[in-house]
Amino acid sequence: MDFPTFLIQLLNGVQYGLLLFLIASGLTLIFGIMGVINLAHGSFYMVGAYLAFSLTGLLGNFWLALPAGIALAVLLGLALEWLLIRPLYRRDHLYQVLLTYGLILVFEELRSILFGDDVHGVAVPVLLNFSIRLTDTLSYPVYRLAMSGVCLLLAAGMYFVISRTRLGMMIRAGSVNREMVQALGINIGLLYRLVFALGVALAAFAGMLAAPVASVYPGMGNQVLIISFVVIVIGGIGSVRGALVAALLIGLADVFGQVVFPHIAGMTVYLVMAAVLLWRPRGLFGSA
Amino acid sequence: MTNGKPTSAHARRRFLKTATGAAALAGATLHAPYLMAQPSKVKVGFLLPYTGTYAQLGKAITDAFKLHVDENGGRLGGRTIEYVQVDSEANPAKATDNTNRLVNLEKVDVIVGPVHSGVAAAMVRVTRESGTLTIDANAGAGVVTGALCAPNIFRTSFSNWQPAYPMGKVLAERGMRKAVTLTWKYGAGQEAIGGFVENFTAHGGSIVKDLWVPFPKVEFQSLLTEIASIKPDAVFVFFAGGGAVKFVKDYAAAGLRNSVPLFGSGFLTDGTLKAQGDAAQGLETTLHYGDSLILPKNLAFREMYAKAAGREADVYAVQGYDAAQLLRIGLEAANGDVKAKKTMIGAMESAEIDSPRGKFTLSKAHNPIQDIYLRKVVGMENKVQGVAHKALADPATGCKMA
C-alpha cells in the first residue's frame, strides 16, 4: 500500500466511522438516558431510507424530502414512545427486548406491504453528484464527503446540546436519577419522549443520508443494528463521546481489515471489540 | 303409482330413509376402495421463500411452475396436481424442519425449491434419505449435484460454478492477464469465484488479489480504493440483489468504470437494472439465460407468463417452469404413477427439456448441461451477445451416484 492509497483508505475509514456514529448515537442516547434496549433501532434506519425513497419520489427533490422525513420520523418516535415504550420503563429489560424485536418484524412486514421486496435506489442530489479525481484511476464521490461533513456537524451539535444547554442538563440528570429530577419539578415523561423521538430521528436521518449511496432494500436495518451495538459497547453504553471514538475505531478497523486481511475481514471489528473489552470491560468511556 | 298424494309422500319418505341408510352404509364400508379407484392427486410441496429479500424469487418460481401445470389443464401425466407451500424464509437454520414437515407431515410426492444454497444443502440431506423426488429450481450450491447427489435429486437451474466459469475464458481471450476477484465470503460467492478463477488461470490469466466481504455487508469503499491502487486488467465479482445494486453504483461513483472494466456472473445485473440505473450500462455478464433471447419458446413463454403472473418473466421464472416440465416428463413416462420412481427417474434423467433458455439435457449428476450466454446491459435489458460456452456441464465434484 503506497502512501496516497493509505491516506485514501484513512479517509474511507473516517467516513464510514462517522456514518456509524450517526446511526449508533441514537441507540446510545436511548439506552444511556432512558435505559431502554431498543432492538428496533435498525428498523428506524430502514424507515429513514424508505422515507427518503418515497418522499424524493413524491416531492421530486431530495432536499425537500430530508426535512419532511425528519418531521415524520420525530412524529413516529413520539407516537411509539407514547403508545408502546412508556409502559415498559419500570419493567425488566427482557420486556423491552421482546417488544422492540416485535417492532422489527412489524416494520419489515409493513415495508413489504407498502414497497414490495424489490431493491430501490435514490438518486444522488444533482448538486453533489460528481466526483473529485484523487489518483489517475480513483475518484471520490463528493456526496460521501458531504455526508461526513453533516455527521461532524451533528456530532458537534449533539455535544453542544448535551453539555452546554439547559435541556442537555436535564437529560443528563434524568439519566442519573429519574426520581430526583421529577421531584425538582421537571416533567421527566416529556423529557423521555423527546429523547426517544430524537433517537428515532437520528437513526432515520442516517438512513436518509445513506439512501443515495447505500440503496434501499429489505432487511437493510438488521445489518446496521449489530454493528451499532458493537459501537456502543466499545464506546461505553450511554456515552455519546464514546460512540464517536468507537465508531471511528470500527470504521478504520473495518476498512484496513478488509484490505490487509481480506480472508478474515468479517472478524476484524469483533476482534477489536474483544480486545477493547478485555482492556476495559465497560467500554472506552463507560461509567463504572 | 296412480294412488293419491299421501301414498306418494309416504313412499318418498320411505325411499329417502332407505336411501340415506344405504348411503351411510356405503360410506362406511366402501370408503377406502372408492378412494383407491379414483386416482388421487399428486402433491407438490414448494419449499421457497415467500417473505424477505428473496420473496420475489420464490413467487416467480411458484407462478411459473403453476403456469406449466395450467397449460396442461391442471394435470401432469393424467394426474391432477395439488400444491402445499412452505415459506423457507431463505433460512438454512429452519430448512431441516421445513423439509421434514413436507416429507413426513404433508407427505408430498415431490419437493420443488429452494432459492438459498444453505437451505438446499439442508433440504437434500433430508430427501436423499427419505427418497422424496426433489427438484431444485434455483439454489446453486455445488453439493446438491456434487457430494450430496442422489438419484431422486434433480436441478433445473445451475450450479454456482456454472455461470461464472465461461467468463474466465472470455476475458483471457481478450488479452486480459491480471484480474482481481471480489465477492461475499459465503458458499455461493466462493463457488462462483472458484469457477471463474479455474478457467481464467487455465487460459493464462492470473489473480493478483482475491478480496472478500463478509455476507451480507455492502460497504465497499475500501475495496474500491484497493482495486484502484492495484489497477488490474479486469475485476470479476459475484453479487446479487441489494448488494449487486450497491456495488455497481459504488463502482461507477468511484470512477473505476472507465479505467478498470468490471465483469460478473449474471446475477450482478438481473432484476436490478432499474435500481442500478446508468451505473450498469455496458456491463458484461455471463448467465444461462437472457431476457432478450430470440427463441420461439422464450418469446411464447414470456408472453404467457406476463399474462398469468402480471409481470415480466426472469431467470427464476424460467427455472420454475422447467421444474414443472421435468416433473411432467417423469409422470408421463410412468403413466401418472408417482410410486414408479425408477421409471420416473429414468425418464427425467434422459429428458431433453425445451426450456425458454434453449434446449438442455441433464448431466449424470442431474444438473443441466446448458449454454451459458454472454450478455451486455443495454438500456433496461441484458442483451444476449452470444454463447460464451456451449453445453457447459458442471464437474460435479464428489458425486457418486448410487
Structure, briefly:
The complex is a heterodimer of chains A (288) and B (402). Chain A contains eleven helices and two strands. Chain A has helices at residues 3-34, 41-59, 62-85, 93-115, 142-164, 166-176, 178-183, 188-214, 220-235, 240-260, 268-279, and strands at residues 131-133, 139-141.
β-strand percent of chain B reads 15-25%
Distance between the termini of chain B: 73 Å
Number of strands of chain B: 15
Q: Which consecutive residue ranges of chain A, at least 5 long each, have pLDDT under 50?
A: none
**Domain unit count of chain B:** 2
Provide a descriptive summary of the structure in words.
The complex is a heterodimer of chains A (288) and B (402). In chain A, 74% of the residues lie in helices and 2% in strands. Chain A contains 11 helices and 2 strands, in the order ααααββααααααα. Chain A has a two-stranded antiparallel ribbon. In chain A, α2 (41-59) packs across α9. The longest helix of chain A has 32 residues, at 3-34. By secondary structure, chain B is α/β, with parallel strands linked by helices. Chain B has 2 domains: 42-158 and 293-369, Rossmann fold (3-Layer(aba) Sandwich); 161-287, 3-Layer(aba) Sandwich (Rossmann fold), CATH 3.40.50. Chain B has helices spanning 5-37, 55-71, 92-105, 117-130, 161-173, 187-202, 221-230, 241-253, 273-276, 296-309, 315-333, 341-349; strands spanning 42-48, 75-76, 79-87, 110-112, 133-136, 153-155, 178-184, 206-213, 234-238, 262-265, 284-287, 352-355, 358-362, 368-378, 381-392. In chain B, the strands form 2 sheets. In chain B, strands 7, 8, 9, 10, 11, 12, 13, 14 and 15 form a 9-stranded mixed beta sheet that branches. A 6-stranded mixed beta sheet of chain B has the order 2-3-1-4-5-6, sandwiched between helices. In chain B, a hairpin with a 2-residue loop joins β2 and β3. At the A-B interface, α1, β2 and α10 of A face β8, α7, α8 and α9 of B.
